[in-house]
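User: Fold this; tokens only.

Assistant: Input:
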Amino acid sequence: MSNGYLALVLHAHLPYVRHPEYDDFLEEDWLYEAITETYLPLLQVLWRLADENVPFKLTMSLTPTLCSMLRDPLLQDRYVRYIERAIELARKELDRTRNDSRLNELARMYLERFITCRNLYVDGWKRDIVSAFAQLQERGVLEIITCAATHGFLPLMANFPEAVRAQIHIARDHYRECFGRDPVGIWLPECGFVPGLDRVLQEVNIRWFIMDSHGLMFGNPRPRYAIYAPVFTPSGVAAFARDRESSKQVWSAEHGYPGDPAYRDFYRDIGFDLSHDYLKPFLPPDGTRKFTGIKYHRITGRTHDKDLYNRIWAMAAADSHAGNFMWNRAQQLKHLSEHSNLDPIVVSPFDAELFGHWWFEGPEFLNWFIRKSAYDQQEFQLTSPTKYLADHNTLQLVVPSASSWGHKGYWEVWLDDSNSWIYPHLHAAARRMTELAREKKDTTDALTDRALKQLARELLLAQSSDWAFLMKTGTARDYATKRSKDHLLRFTRLYDMIRCNDIDGKFLANCEWRDNIFPNLDWRYYA
């Protein structure tokens, strides 16, 4: 008999990066790498599990920005070009390493993987990854949830409720376009919550969200079952808390499974190891070195002198770690059930890109863990938060505390000396957007309507939490700064045009061409 439930939740998100003004743009590779290393491998695993009738439930967010990029014809074409370049490079590597059997075997592995990705993407799923995930939802094994429209960090918009409301309502509308139904759950960007946010979620009939553990533990009153049962907020929306014990075992590079020396090293890539002349046909026009996806070494300490990757050893480690993770969850839930009169649930949320991109063997780990959980134990069942709520509809009423899953648990990552300069501008733009939306809400002029749509797009894209995060970490700081400034400058110019009733159609068309996200956006949500 089951002692409780485990809900695995994967958060699939990337910032909106689309540059039609360039033939080749380095940061677009973030999407192409994720398709190759995470989304296609996860689809392979999940479809195989479903086809073999393995009983399981998995929850996954596909954010509006990610879905928009995955469905964009320009980016779809560019991904095909990217994967065909990867195939060409792998063929070249097969020839270069022909006299080294170990390297040659690895080069062949990458060539086969890249060819499989291309065939799955082009022939198997007809370039439509979103529909491939949607079909798994229709089969009842995957629940897809939404996120705020552009992953804006909502607690730092709390003084501008119209901006928060627009982020949620536009996300709901976009989910309808992608999946033909309304979302039931939401991944709040960075798990950021402030009291009152649940009322906005209730407006669009979202039934639950995930928050960090301290956000629930510091709630009022204290939750009777700690983080191992959801609670209802005052608006009736349920809050599930992240279990740090299970999460740390998977995501921690130092203390978790991904740091095992048998696994592939992420950073040692031939794009930085081999000569520039050899790589030149596969690098950007300016010759900037970049990741190629071909990595020959395993994690063997913090040293440049690393041993070659051994796929058999890595698969054995993933199998062992999947069994260990299953055993730990079984013991955890057995202990919890002995001290509770309510079926406990452990919620383990992760960034989806951990599985495959950062942790190369992650999809195989997930595959074996799901299979072992289905057939090798009886202590817990895999479930989704929605299914748990359907079976447990009487819960404690709690007002959760302000919180996030960022460093130290609050806003420090997205608000410090490196990025605080953006917020006065974002707040001014939110105020102006609301002002114009109220003033123009009855307009019937087509050009004004287009301009207001684009005004909202520029604001939404400027609000992405990714830019502040990249500024804080120093990863792609210059790009994040430029994106923030560009969107705010275009917003200001469009605002002045609408305010003066003198809209430059050519400039507007150029903005629409650059940033075509949310073609059916309803700017009146700001009113």
